[in-house]
Design brief:
Elements (H helix, E strand, L loop, with lengths): L5 E7 L1 E2 L2 E9 L2 E5 L2 E3 L6 H13 L1 E15 L6 E14 L9 E7 L1 H6 L8 H10 L16
Parallel strand pairs: 1-7
Antiparallel strand pairs: 1-5, 2-3, 3-4, 3-8, 6-7
Length: 150
């Protein structure tokens, strides 16, 4: 069997010193995460992060830049994740939209609230992405290239 990483996208979205987070059920536990999910077949990386934020929070998301790229071997399920993390702005909220399966709620939390709930974070990547964002890490979206099937 050939090994491969699972590609995921995530978004750090800050407004008024609070971060848009989700509370979700994962492996029978309630955890806190950024809006995040898997890249789907034939989907661009930017389209994936826009879709995931919309599905999990009911907010339309406009990415502005990359925060970082992270390789994380999970001890929980023996899967290695390649996370591509973005930052940007929420541009439109659709309160009538039903959230993705497994999502309990979207919520805005401060860094201090995230730190106080560190035992409930889905992975160490949650705080790493927030801290990288707060340190000013910004990389151009021009680093990403998507080629369509011909």
């Amino acid at each position: 069997m050939r090994w491969k990483a699972n590609v995921t996208v995530a978004a750090v979205i800050e407004k008024d010193n609070r971060f848009l987070m989700i509370e979700e059920e994962s492996d029978g536990e309630i955890v806190i995460n950024q809006p995040a999910g898997h890249l789907e077949k034939d989907e661009s990386i930017i389209a994936a992060v826009k879709r995931e934020v919309q599905e999990e929070t009911a907010w339309e998301f406009q990415p502005s830049y990359l925060v970082g790229i992270y390789l994380y071997p999970s001890k929980n399920n023996n899967i290695t994740y390649l996370r591509i993390c973005f930052s940007g702005q929420c541009v439109n909220y659709k309160p009538e939209q039903k959230l993705d399966e497994g999502i309990i709620q979207a919520m805005w939390l401060s860094k201090e609230e995230l730190e106080a709930n560190s035992a409930n974070l889905r992975s160490p990547l949650v705080m790493q992405c927030v801290n990288d964002f707060l340190s000013g890490q910004q990389y151009s979206l021009d680093l990403l290239h998507h080629y369509e099937n011909e």
